[in-house]
């Protein structure tokens, strides 16, 4: 636990301020009885589907509830990573598409990144998630992603990060992403400027889960023994 000095919580229920403590979460992969490749990819896919749903993309309930046996019947045992490709559309804007790629390579190179970008370009899609194996990306692939970040957003998650859904952990409070209108109302209500809100790094695990961008605000709701609930707001840097 490491406090961020100088930051102040905005308590919505009371309209008052208090000290802010930032809890740094250490993620551990849960040991399971079944350590097979199929089980691992099933767990990862479930986390990705829930992540897409929580970001506002259309995901069928039957996909979220898919059992391991149904997963095996659908994609094979063991499955081929390329067959796990996902494309989802946003609930509010069907033109807003998100690709989820599962590269076959242990270390993804520039050629693969270019192939993904070409596929996205053909479909007028500008955002994708790459589910990486342990060795990650080659230096040239990292450079390509960084150089194209002004137009295309390729988020990288390691498989081990997705074995558990961090937002379902009991120590992680409820997070809700504010719309631009809700953000405006919040600032006007408390007569605040953006730089007066507590901060959240874009690299924060929860910020990455929701795909948050600079300037977005999240409402965090925690249980409180005295007030019932304790609400704070944080802006992404």
From TrEMBL:
Molecular-function GO term, any one: DNA binding
Keywords: DNA-directed RNA polymerase, Nucleus, Transcription
RNA polymerase Rpb5 N-terminal domain location: 36-120
A Gene Ontology BP annotation from the UniProt entry: transcription by RNA polymerase II
First and last residue of the signal peptide: none
Species classification: Eukaryota, Metazoa, Spiralia, Lophotrochozoa, Platyhelminthes
Subcellular location: Nucleus
Family: Belongs to the archaeal Rpo5/eukaryotic RPB5 RNA polymerase subunit family.
Tree of life domain: Eukaryota
Gene source species: Schistosoma mansoni
Protein's name according to its UniProt entry: DNA-directed RNA polymerases I, II, and III subunit RPABC1
Limits of the RNA polymerase subunit H/Rpb5 C-terminal domain: 164-236
